[in-house]
Every structure is written in structure tokens, then in C-alpha cells.
Amino acid sequence: MSSSEQKNEARGPNADQIEYWNGDAGEKWARHQDRLDVMLAPFSNALLMLAAVKPGERIMDIGCGCGATTFDLASAAGDKGRALGVDISAPMIARAKERAAALHSKAEFLLADAATHDFGATQFDVLTSRFGIMFFDDPVSAFGHIRKALAPGGRTGFVCWRPFRENPWAALPMMAALPHLPPQEPPVPGAPGPFAFDDANRFRDVLTQAGFRAIDIQPFDAELTLGAGADPVETALHQSLEIGPLARALKTMPEEKRDTITDAVRKALAANLKDGAVRLPGAVWLVSAKA
Ligand SMILES: C[S@@+](CC[C@H](N)C(=O)[O-])C[C@H]1O[C@@H](n2cnc3c(N)ncnc32)[C@H](O)[C@@H]1O
């Protein structure tokens, strides 16, 4: 996508998310890709099991970010298959392409809005996503559009977060910071963001309206390693302040308030240091459906 095409898309649907993931957030995800991949690894494995890709299949990995899942899917699809990672974030797609070259992976990457890009009809056997499908302004239209790229009988394997309160990796740092933050607007249920599909019934309705069938939504729990290695608490702290809901809330905070918040979050994370690592529970939905 050229920069003028991207600017045009930035005025259309998903404009806020396109701006968000091409700004600071996308840069941070690209910079911290190795640490995020460690943190999110349990959900890659769950996604691979769910997608159950066979050699020769064609996969579209939606909101692929820096490509971790796309590389695994490309390996599963083998020489005769295809794995295309699609993402709106230029810095993350650039990182994915660098990694593909370094890994000699045949995974392909495309900078595009999955909700509107013309993929052609029936081009894929499987649609996958690890946390890349919760950001559409109009999810029914987005999933309806993407579904047309699936071959008849094609399937999905999506992973998305369950409610915030069931996800201490996000909730614990936020709760520690909350007394020092200005009053936070309550999140609008279903608004684009990491927890847009926390309500399984809503996600089921969206997929049904988008034309999917045989929808199955199952809970899955795993621990996220926020910090390990030489200084696990500082690593976890850095992670919590840079990425996720607290990072979003901190964007508008004056510098002098940040020290107090940093101390509070550090304390909360340190209380969860065990066996040389800070690990906190995460809760997701594993979502499968058919075209
Ligand atoms: C939370 S990140 C997850 C990235 C990656 N799947 C991973 O697990 O590391 C969400 C990703 O979805 C992408 N995204 C959001 N809306 C999108 C859209 N409409 N089309 C394609 N990608 C989108 C973002 O740019 C971002 O890379």
C-alpha cells in the first residue's frame, strides 16, 4: 500500500485504529516483538491446534502484527500451501518481512485493512487470528467481507480476550495504577479494542450476522510470562507500562505522576514474582466457525 493509499484508508472505516497501530503502539510492538512473542506463546500454540492446518492449505492470518503466528502457519501449510499475514500497521509489517527473510520463511505479508481489502473470492481455506480481529469499527461488515475470501467449507481459528477482570496480566497493573490516574471513562461494551469480544454471545451474533455457521466458542486459560531473565520485575514493569490497557491510559499522564504510578505497579508485579519470573493468568476465547 502506498502512503497516499494509506492516508485515504485513514479517512475511511477503522481510521482511528489505522492511526493508532501506525503510531507509537505499532512502533512499540515492533520493538518489543521478541518479548511479546514469549508472553503470547501459549496462545500461538492454542491457535495452531485450533486451526489444525494441513499441508497444502491456504491461510489468511488477520492482524498478524510482526508475524509470529504466520510463520508457524506457513510451516504447517508446507511448500504447496500459503500463509498470508495481513495488518494495517506499517512498522509491524516491516518487522514481519525482515523476520521472514531472516527465517527463510515462505510466509507472505500484506499491509492492508482486512475489513476492506479486496482479497478475491474463495482464496483461502482457513482464516486465523491471534488478537488481531477485535479492532473493527463495524465488525459485522468486516467479518462478512473477510468471509467471502474463504473457500466453501473453509474455517476459522480465532483467539481473543475474555473479560478484562478475568485477565490479571492486564487488570493487575491497571488496578495498581488506578488510584493515581484521573477518573477513567468506563469502556463502551463492544467498542474496538482488546476486549471488544469479551462477551462470547456478542461475538457469536456478529459472526452469525456476517454469514458464518457452526460457530463454536470455548474458553482457554494460560499464564503469560510478563518478565523473566536477569530482572523479571523490571521487565514485567516495562512491559505493563509500554503495552496494553495501562499504556493507553498513561498516554495523557504528566511525567511527574508517572513515578508514583511506576512504583505502585512495580510493587504489585513484584508480589507475583515466583521461581524467577513474573507470570499472570490470561483468559481467552478460542473461536471456530465455518464459511
Ligand atoms: C494486539 S495486536 C496482535 C498482533 C499479532 N496478531 C500478535 O499476536 O502478536 C493487534 C493487531 O491487529 C492489527 N489490526 C487492527 N485492525 C486491523 C485491520 N482492520 N486489518 C488488519 N489488521 C488490523 C493491528 O495493527 C495489530 O497488529
Molecular structure report:
The chain contains 12 helices and 8 strands. It has 291 residues and is α/β, with parallel strands linked by helices. It has one domain: 3-Layer(aba) Sandwich (Rossmann fold). Strands 1, 2, 3, 4, 5, 6, 7 and 8 form an 8-stranded mixed beta sheet that branches. Helix 4 packs parallel to helix 5. The chain starts with a helix and ends with a strand. The chain binds S-adenosylmethionine. S-adenosylmethionine binds next to helix 2, helix 4 and strand 2.
Helix proportion range? 40-55%
- How would you characterize the largest beta sheet? 8 strands, mixed
State the CATH superfamily name: Vaccinia Virus protein VP39
CATH architecture label name: 3-Layer(aba) Sandwich
Task: Extract low-pLDDT stretches.
Answer: none
Compact description:
The protein has 291 residues and is of the alpha/beta class. It is 44% helix and 22% strand.
Question: What's the helix and strand layout?
Answer:
Blueprint lengths: L2 H7 L5 H8 L1 H8 L1 H19 L6 E5 L5 H10 L4 E6 L2 H14 L4 E4 L12 E7 L8 H9 L2 E12 L6 H10 L22 H10 L3 E15 L4 H11 L2 H6 L4 H16 L2 E2 L2 E14 L1
Parallel strand pairs: 1-2, 1-4, 2-3, 4-5
Antiparallel strand pairs: 5-8, 6-8, 7-8
Helix pairs in contact: 3-6, 4-5, 8-12, 10-12
The structure holds S-adenosylmethionine.
S-adenosylmethionine binds next to helix 2, helix 4 and strand 2.
